[in-house]
Amino acid sequence: MLNMTMTSRSSRRRGARLERGISLVELMVGLTVGLMVTAGAISLFASNVSQSRRVVANARVEQDLRNIADLITRDLRRAGYWGNAINGTLAVGAAAAAASNPYASVAPASSPTDGQIVYSFSRGAEDDAKSDAETFGFRRNADDGTVEMQTSNGTWKKLNDPNYTTITSLSLNDASPDTIPLGYRCPTNCSPGSAGCPEVKVRRYDLVLTGRSVLDSTVVRTLRTSVRLRNDEMSGKCPA
């Protein structure tokens, strides 16, 4: 009988303890741990979103720079093309002079703030005169951060979307090697360095483009490439 009474009292004490629930300290500890886990999850999510945004911004800037550079390279290589180039090497008659290439000039950007390249090439109408439709170029528009292409004299088309990429600099620097003397090919020898002695310039330019992402201003990329013109620049003539 005594054992049954003690067992009954012990059971009531255990039941009383179970009915009390968790203490305030236990509740605060649980909330703290839960908040720490939640904060860690939010921080990880925010970090992943930020990293993804940066990757997308970086890819967009690099793609825009590459597209612009490829277009400039392909078009600029045609600078100086002249269908009647033979007229620049021959002169018929004792008093005649060889004609000058009307498309020879390439005016590169002198600084990133200028950001303009102007050149020309023949489009088939071989009248030995450069027309407005044969004037081309590229320039940086400082107002909206775009690069524009001149499809004919005075007509410009944008090449990038300023809502995603801002072009901060566009420069083209002359990196041509030394001219090559051709006087030894003349019927009458012309010593290298002599005034008016014929020579050829192999034209090469260094193109530098820098762009910044509108989505993430910390993403700034610079692309450098070299452009070799297909048409070399001739100057001088053989002595009579």
Task: Describe this structure in a few short sentences.
The chain crosses the membrane at residues 21-46. The chain is an alpha+beta fold. It is 30% helix and 25% strand.
Class by SSE composition: alpha+beta
Largest sheet: 4 strands, antiparallel
Query: What is the averaged pLDDT score?
Result: 80
Helix count, per DSSP? Answer: 2
What is the gyration radius calculated from CA atoms? 37 Å
Helix content bin: 25-40%
Poorly predicted sequence stretches spanning 5 or more consecutive residues: none
Strand content: 25-35%
Please identify the oligomeric state. Answer: single chain
Number of strands: 10
Give the count of structural domains: 1
Distance between the termini: 143 Å
Outline type? elongated
| Arrangement of strands in the largest sheet | 1-2-3-4
Q: H/E element string?
A: HHEEEEEEEEEE
Describe this structure in words.
This protein is 30% helix and 25% strand. The protein is of the alpha+beta class. The chain has one domain (56-235). The strands form 3 sheets. Strands 1-2-3-4 form a 4-stranded antiparallel sheet, with helices on one face. The longest helix is centred in the N-terminal third of the chain and has 53 residues, at 24-76. 20% of the residues are buried. The mean pLDDT is 80. This is Prepilin-type N-terminal cleavage/methylation domain-containing protein. The chain crosses the membrane at residues 21-46. It comes from Paucibacter sediminis. InterPro entries: N_methyl_site.
